[in-house]
Amino acid sequence: MTKTIGYLGPKGTFTKMAVDSIFNGEDKRDFDTIPACMDAVESGEIDIAVVPLENAIEGTVQLTVDYLVHQVRLPVVAEVVVPIQQHLLVREDFDGGLMDIREVHSHTQAIAQCHQFIHKELANAEVQFASSTAKAAEIISTSDSPIAAIANRMAAKEYGLQIMSENIHDYPNNHTRFVVLTKNEDGISIKHPVKTDRTTLLITLPSDQAGALHQVLSAFAWRKMNLSKIESRPMKTGLGNYFFIIDVDQPYDDVLFPGVEAELQALGCKVTVLGTYPVYQVEM
């Protein structure tokens, strides 16, 4: 049975690139926002959502994490890491220079990834935020004004734009983690080499216990479980109340993880497994 896959659109986004790299032949549907895509899985409108989770330059996509924790608790069943190459796009008939550009449009993450280029090369341009990099490219394609978009090569082709400047992101090692979310992973087939396996945990600490975070980390350390990420986010219940997202670089097992959970629960922590999943790496 064909699965319906949702992604942050329109066509030409990096999310669409991630979807195309691991899924073939499925029905693919674009959404205007990350929450709309996740809501569609929750309501049963689509089967799978692919959303950005973290960028190597700008860090966590906070909208994704907060919505996943506070609004729709969808299991993470896979991750795909995609190299990100940001380009400055203009209309085919644009014949000016960088200093002639009056506006630069893109997603907030892309703007942040290219901050130095914008600061140094686009001094006369006003930054305008779009819902996605591809949406920015679409805006440029329908405008007669001297404006530009920051997006990828796929978006340039999709909307008939020329690449004025290539690879304008501030740091070369630019990658984004995308996660695959679904209520039912039966029938999902990803034909791509697995790079590694990962388990993501959501942990809340007791509010009145000194040294609780140290004790949490010790539960993993003495079992020699490698943590590739630990990040705090507000619980939205008051100042000083946080939850922690922890990535463990191994699949969930029947010995180590139950031991960790029991130890943390004894400390008064609440532990939720957000997913244990394969990680796929896309090469450009």
Feature tags:
284 residues; alpha/beta; D-Maltodextrin-Binding Protein, domain 2; 3 domains; ten-stranded mixed β-sheet; five-stranded mixed β-sheet; 27% helix; ACT_dom; Preph_deHydtase
Characterization of this structure:
The chain has 284 residues and is an alpha/beta fold. It folds into three domains: 4-84 and 174-182, Periplasmic binding protein-like II (D-Maltodextrin-Binding Protein, domain 2), CATH 3.40.190.10; 87-165, D-Maltodextrin-Binding Protein, domain 2 (3-Layer(aba) Sandwich), CATH 3.40.190; 194-278, 2-Layer Sandwich (Alpha-Beta Plaits), CATH 3.30.70.260. The protein has nine helices and 15 strands. The strands form two sheets. Strands 1, 2, 3, 4, 5, 11, 12, 13, 14 and 15 form a ten-stranded mixed β-sheet that branches. A hairpin with a 3-residue loop joins β3 (48-55) and β4 (59-60). The radius of gyration is 21 Å and the shape is globular. The two termini are 30 Å apart.
Question: Which CATH class of the largest domain?
Answer: Alpha Beta
CATH homologous superfamily (4th level) name of the largest domain:
Periplasmic binding protein-like II
End-to-end Cα distance: 30 Å
Strand content: 25-35%
Low-confidence stretches: none
How many helical elements? 9
Average residue-wise pLDDT: 91
CATH fold topology of the largest domain? D-Maltodextrin-Binding Protein, domain 2
- Structural class call reads alpha/beta
Helix fraction, binned, reads 25-40%
Total domain count: 3
Order of helices and strands: EHEHEEHEEEHHEHEHEEEHEEHE
Taken from the alpha-carbon principal axes, the silhouette is: globular
Global Rg: 21 Å
Largest sheet: 10 strands, mixed
Beta strands, count: 15
Under the CATH scheme, the architecture of the largest domain is 3-Layer(aba) Sandwich
Domain Prephenate dehydratase: 4-183
Pathway: Amino-acid biosynthesis; L-phenylalanine biosynthesis; phenylpyruvate from prephenate: step 1/1
Catalytic activity: prephenate + H(+) = 3-phenylpyruvate + CO2 + H2O
Keywords: Amino-acid biosynthesis, Aromatic amino acid biosynthesis, Lyase, Phenylalanine biosynthesis
